[in-house]
Specification:
Layout (H helix, E strand, L loop, with lengths): L13 E3 L2 E3 L3 E3 L11 H13 L4 E8 L12 E2 L6 H12 L4 E7 L15 E2 L3 E2 L7 E4 L2 H21 L3 E6 L5 H6 L14 H4 L1 H14 L4 E9 L12 H9 L5 E6 L2 H4 L12 H4 L2 H4 L4 E3 L6 H9 L5 E4 L1 H5 L3 H6 L14 H8 L32 E5 L3 H13 L2 E5 L8 H5 L10 H11 L4 E4 L6 H7 L3 E4 L3 E3 L13 E2 L5 E2 L1 H5 L7 E6 L4 H12 L3 E6 L14 H10 L3 E4 L1 E6 L3 E6 L5 E5 L2 E5 L2 E3 L2 H5 L4 E2 L9 H14 L21
Parallel strand pairs: 3-4, 3-14, 4-5, 4-6, 6-10, 7-9, 10-11, 11-12, 12-13, 13-14, 15-16, 15-18, 16-17, 18-30, 20-25, 21-28, 22-23, 22-28, 23-24
Antiparallel strand pairs: 1-2, 8-9, 19-29, 25-26, 26-27
Helix pairs in contact: 1-2, 2-3, 3-6, 15-17, 15-23, 20-21
The structure holds adenosine-5'-diphosphate and iron/sulfur cluster.
């Protein structure tokens, strides 16, 4: 197939200072939970994206000096020459495919507690560090400022030595010392580095000029800048200082990489923001500079990308998450395979890897982070090892992905589901408020399967032990999912909750089926991810009187790792929910619920005509109990995230017919013992 000519503009080369990007697809810096801690995994992940056609591929934030040490975060590090080989390897992998490598150099002053180096953190003014570390930033004196400029210059030279083509001056997300100097609320200095915007921007200007001087002959020098902090007058705005800063520095960098901050706004989930949500903030930048401008907005549609370029809003299409969900997105557009794009669903499971300093994972792309350690390529898979037939029961994310990947291998696959609609939990959850984009998990796989003559999908086909036997497939995988418990068993109540006769108990499955109880409703969330907050929101929007109860100190606590917690709690409050944190449900009676304070056991009674219990799920594994020789995958094996189900289905497909293996099922790198 060939490229649709209307997308030609996306494949024009772009000159960036002394280097040229081969097309307009630009993978902006993004964290991956691997960095220096899992370097081979990281380098192969970036190399795979180069193979997939991205013209520029950047590192995540890269520590330049031990005075800004993010330990235990598993990001990039370039403290001295000993760190160069990892990055040289990454650059070589990227250059193999004619792409450019970018280094997001950073000194993260006030956002690091220096837990390993034990240096006193540095910033423009005395201030507590981010998070709740009991550590303060020391106000930098002139000698510190001179030193920081030297450290940045030295790091740029190391980046050049490693083979980078593009070096960043990072002024984004309130995550760098330069952005802290720029900030009207962090910088309280009265010298030439404080006060007016020109003074607050002095350090950035000096570093930008010195970086260009040090490496600008062969490396492009980019600025990454958040034009709006969404704090109104308290911070930088795109109509105020954000614009003024770009006007001041307009032609100084070789490229502008612009966005909004903090990270939770820049990487907003689809639950809260649609694709292109940053366009209005950054659209002015191209009017102020002639240098190439990169912006992001979870762009997955090539038509939207073309219109951004043609309307003069952006020169290059920035992408972090779309490049994670589909490392081959540019190649697919180039080859005229638009339908094959695996679109990001905006769930931010990828972010959770960074938060946990564990290798990145992605809901849509089960191979993300597995490129090196398992040798999983996002597009290629080994052909089948036998002519065996496979029956998969359940067409949720696990069953669909297993069928798709087995179909790609060439197996003859039958996928059967008792429901009238494919998708399992995703078919239900995509109807929760804000989660419609999650349906892409199903849509992508259904389309792929529909193109495979060797895969057949049968809906309204409930399987029983007898029909399993009758079918007589060589391999059977049960992807029959899980159901929410109605007994309250969960973290806070391992033996369940005392429930009186006549009490109306519901689960998220009931709410997703559209049941809206009359009278006051209590949503008890002992799950702590999105489900409790989402069903509460659904009920509130349907007009219910909702009280949200959780033993945690806040609503949907785990969603900190998807950058959503604040937005979820705000939304419930805005919709009128009453919220009780630090409370367990001690017992449920016909029209009341008794809450117990998790700290001092104090009791209180609330009126409740119905209680929605969101605590845990139990596998639907009756077929396995009857036929224990079959394999369980996805939630039927261990209820978890949608990402885990997709991964489980993919793994089953990869490993079918492989010899059993008892050891660690992936490659590892070990820290070497020092000879001294
Ligand atoms: P997972 O996340 O593991 O993919 P889901 O709960 O999303 O699990 O999907 C499970 C699917 O299995 C549902 O669509 C459900 O209708 C289907 N299912 C469950 N039991 C049977 C059965 N006995 N026969 C056919 N389909 C079944
Ligand atoms: Fe997109 Fe979710 Fe994958 Fe992140 S984990 S890239 S948000 S689909």
């Amino acid at each position: 197939m060939t490229r649709d000519p209307r997308f030609d503009v996306l494949f024009e080369p772009v000159k960036i200072g002394p280097v040229t990007a081969k097309n307009r697809f630009y993978q902006v810096p993004h964290c991956n939970g691997m960095g220096r801690a899992f370097p081979s995994s990281m380098t192969e992940m970036r190399r795979t994206k180069a193979e997939g056609g991205w013209a520029v591929i950047c590192t995540e934030e890269m520590e330049i000096h031990h005075t800004a040490d993010h330990t235990p975060w598993a990001g990039a590090r370039l403290w001295d020459d000993r760190d160069i080989p990892v990055w040289a390897k990454m650059c070589d992998g990227i250059h193999e495919f004619g792409s450019l490598a970018g280094a997001e150099l950073n000194h993260a002053g006030a956002t690091t507690a220096n837990r390993w180096s034990r240096e006193v953190p540095l910033g423009p003014s005395h201030f507590p560090v981010e998070m709740y570390d009991p550590v303060q930033v020391r106000a930098m004196d002139r000698e510190d400022i001179r030193a920081l400029r030297r450290w940045h210059r030295d790091a740029a030279l190391r980046a050049k030595k490693a083979g980078f083509d593009l070096v960043y001056v990072y002024l984004g997300h309130q995550l760098s010392t330069m952005s802290h100097f720029l900030s009207p609320y962090r910088n309280r200095r009265s010298d030439e580095y404080g006060g007016s915007l020109e003074n607050r921007a002095r350090l950035a200007r000096e570093i930008l000029e010195e970086t260009k001087d040090a490496v600008g002959d062969t490396c492009a020098v980019a600025i990454r800048f958040s034009v709006d902090e969404l704090m109104g007058d308290a911070g930088i705005t795109s109509e105020g200082e954000g614009r003024e800063l770009i006007e001041m520095f307009a032609e100084l960098p070789d490229l502008w990489d612009v966005n909004i901050s903090g990270w939770e706004h820049d990487s907003a989930t689809s639950r809260f923001k649609g694709s292109g949500f940053q366009d209005d903030y950054v659209a002015f930048v191209k009017q102020v500079t002639t240098k190439p401008v990169v912006g992001v907005g979870r762009y997955t549609s090539p038509d939207a990308m073309v219109s951004l370029v043609k309307s003069g809003k952006l020169d290059m299409i920035g992408a972090a998450r779309p490049s994670i969900a589909d490392p081959f997105l540019p190649k697919k557009i180039e080859e005229g395979r638009i339908e094959d794009i695996r679109e990001c669903i905006g769930c931010n499971i990828c972010v959770s890897g960074d938060h946990h300093s564990a290798p990145i994972r992605c809901t849509q792309n089960p191979t993300m982070g597995e490129e090196w350690r398992k040798g999983w390529h996002p597009e290629r898979i080994a052909p089948k090892d036998s002519d065996a037939s496979v029956l998969i029961v359940g067409a949720g994310p696990a069953g669909l992905e297993a069928a798709r990947a087995l179909g790609q291998r060439g197996y003859t696959v039958t996928l059967a589901d008792k429901a009238a609609e494919a998708g399992g939990r995703v078919a239900r959850e995509r109807r929760l408020p804000g989660l419609s984009e999650w349906g892409r998990v199903v849509d992508y796989r259904l389309y792929q399967i529909s193109q495979m003559p060797n895969v057949s999908l049968y809906l309204e086909s409930e399987m029983t032990p007898d029909t399993l036997d009758e079918f007589g497939a060589d391999h059977v995988a049960l992807a029959t999912g899980a159901r929410w418990n109605a007994d309250g068993i969960g973290r806070q109540n391992p033996r369940g909750i005392s429930i009186a006769d006549g009490a109306k108990i519901m689960t998220p499955d009931d709410v997703m089926a559209g049941v809206v109880p009359d009278g006051p409703v209590v949503v008890f969330d002992d799950d702590h991810f999105y489900m409790g907050g989402a069903v509460a929101e659904m009920l509130l929007r349907a007009g219910a009187d909702v009280t949200f109860v959780t033993p945690a100190p806040e609503v949907s606590s785990w969603t900190h790792h998807t950058l959503e917690q604040h937005a979820i709690q705000k939304r419930l409050l805005d919709l009128g929910a009453k919220i009780h944190c630090g409370q367990n449900v001690a017992s449920i009676d016909k029209d009341t619920v008794t809450l117990e304070n998790v700290y001092n056991d104090a009791l209180q009674v609330l009126a409740a005509s119905a209680v929605i219990l969101v605590s845990m799920r139990t596998p639907v594994d009756d077929l396995w109990l009857a036929r224990p020789e079959v394999t369980r995958i996805g939630d039927a094996y261990g209820p978890s995230t949608i990402a885990a189900s997709v991964y489980s289905g993919h793994r089953y497909a990869r490993e079918l017919d492989a010899a059993p293996h008892d050891g660690v099922p992936f490659l590892r790198e070990l820290v070497e013992l020092s000879p001294n």
